[in-house]
């Protein structure tokens, strides 16, 4: 396979939503605990999240003053990826088309030291829309970046590079709804790992896949653990 094996690992509500207040409710706590436990045990080269999730979970909205950084100029037809010599093998891959995420370190610092996240080397997946000074900022922070697309991230190209340049064999796709939808439409989700919390979400919350298309999976495992349902499916 010319791309990493993709396992989409998510907590969902009974009605298949993945964003919103239900995630913070006491009734969802066991589902979140089970989610993190499974995350620690899934063997992978790291996890992929959309820009909104990365901001909510890790960067907290910080953004650098780009006027302090030299622009990195690339020929418009030849956007160059920036890779480090010593890549760790465990990555936090941010789908950040315009370069909106401000990192204070080139590795994830998880407040709980969770080995499922802590120490993961950040990789920015960008489009040609990213500001050239943002590239200067990333290089000064020693944060690797790859280009995939002009305005939207071309999921297949990004995955090709993650496999063939970075060396990722398996990656976890961990939300939210929008990035999951891009992957579902590109038909690159090989496995689903769903933790279903016994709670119904609000009507405004978003589904597992935004703007999904018709596709089928095969159920391979179902169990009840800590009062939550754990479901596993393989791509048909
Ligand atoms: N239930 C769970 O297990 C779980 C797990 C993770 C997150 N979440 C929840 O999910 C929520 C966020 O989800 P979300 O759906 O709003 O956002 P998201 O998927 O986290 O991020 C969406 C953003 O990522 C960028 N993006 C991703 N793929 C792209 C592509 N192929 N092409 C172009 N841009 C792409 C865009 O950034 P720009 O906007 O910069 O263009 C897009 O708006 C959080 O509040 C979090 O609580 C839940």
Terminal residue distance? 16 Å
Hetero compounds? NADP nicotinamide-adenine-dinucleotide phosphate
What fold name stands as the CATH topology of the largest domain? Dihydrofolate Reductase, subunit A
Helical fraction equals 10-25%
Morphology: globular
CATH superfamily of the largest domain: Dihydrofolate Reductase, subunit A
> How would you characterize the largest beta sheet?
9 strands, mixed
- Tally of DSSP helical segments: 5
Gyration radius, rounded? 18 Å
Could you name the CATH class of the largest domain? Alpha Beta
Describe the protein.
By secondary structure, the chain is of the alpha/beta class. Helix content is 22%, strand content 23%. The protein has helices spanning 29-41, 51-59, 132-140, 155-166, 177-185; strands at residues 5-12, 46-50, 91-95, 121-126, 145-147, 170-173, 191-196, 217-225, 228-235. It is globular. The two termini are 16 Å apart. 39% of the residues are buried. The structure holds NADP nicotinamide-adenine-dinucleotide phosphate (NAP). Residues 10-11, 18-19, 23, 49-53, 56, 95, 97-98, 100, 152-153, 155, 174-179, 182, 206 line the site of NADP nicotinamide-adenine-dinucleotide phosphate (NAP).
